[in-house]
Amino acid sequence: DVKVTQSSRYLVKRTGEKVFLECVQDMDHENMFWYRQDPGLGLRLIYFSYDVKMKEKGDIPEGYSVSREKKERFSLILESASTNQTSMYLCASSLVSSGSYNEQFFGPGTRLTVL
Amino acid sequence: DQQVKQNSPSLSVQEGRISILNCDYTNSMFDYFLWYKKYPAEGPTFLISISSIKDKNEDGRFTVFLNKSAKHLSLHIVPSQPGDSAVYFCAATEYNFNKFYFGSGTKLNVKP
Fold first, then answer.
1. How far is the C-alpha of B19 from the C-alpha of A40, rounded, in Å?
2. What is the pLDDT of residues A5-38, one digit of tens each?
3. CB-based contact B43 A90, cutoff 8 Å
4. What is the distance in angstroms between the Cα of A14 and the nearest Cα belonging to chain B?
5. B2, closest residue in chain A (CA to CA)
6. A43 and B102 in contact by Cβ < 8 A?
7. I need a labelling partner for B6 at 20 to 30 A (CA). Which of A44, A52, A70, A105 fits?
8. Hey, how many other C-beta atoms are within 10 angstroms of the C-beta on B42?
9. Taking a contact as any Cβ pair under 8 Å apart, which residues of chain B between 23 and 82 contact chain A?
10. Among candidate residues A11, A79, A89, A42, the one with its CA nearest the CA of residue B106
């Protein structure tokens, strides 16, 4: 079974703090994704990575950065947390598409509250 | 602009009856569609998918229907069970493309 783990289930930070959200997958997947989930808006893609040290912006990258130094680990960084970044953050991974479709496997999520 | 839309934020159904969840999309390049189920405090889990070469895919109590001309898909759950109570997201993607587009979700409540 694919396992995607996220470093924290719940996190409370103050405005202006630098925040690191960590995600690890154990299935040697090339692709990794960071989403945020907000009521009425569904899952919105922040960033994704298709290989080590490679990244691409998703739909809402502003205020975020990412790091992928190892294949199994994908970090989301909030350089200076703001209250509008209070959300549920979900990490996912998948194989690279090579003539097929590959489902994404999700971690349990991190509920981040910025005060 | 959202390319995948779920216009019903919630749905309530009696146990044993049919649940029908709907999803619309705007991008005609989408050719693969998925449904994910999400319980509170857990990540979404894959439920069922359909390729655009089909108009129906069935897996046990779950059936997904695709109407390409209307750019519409639906998930049918028959019979509905209380354990089906969750948020359901539909998602769409293109062949050889790694990015999924998700709808806003429909919260299903199945009453005993």
1. 20
2. 999 999 999 999 999 999 999 989 999 999 999 9
3. yes
4. 22
5. A41
6. yes
7. A105
8. 13
9. 32, 34, 36, 41-46, 49, 51
10. A42
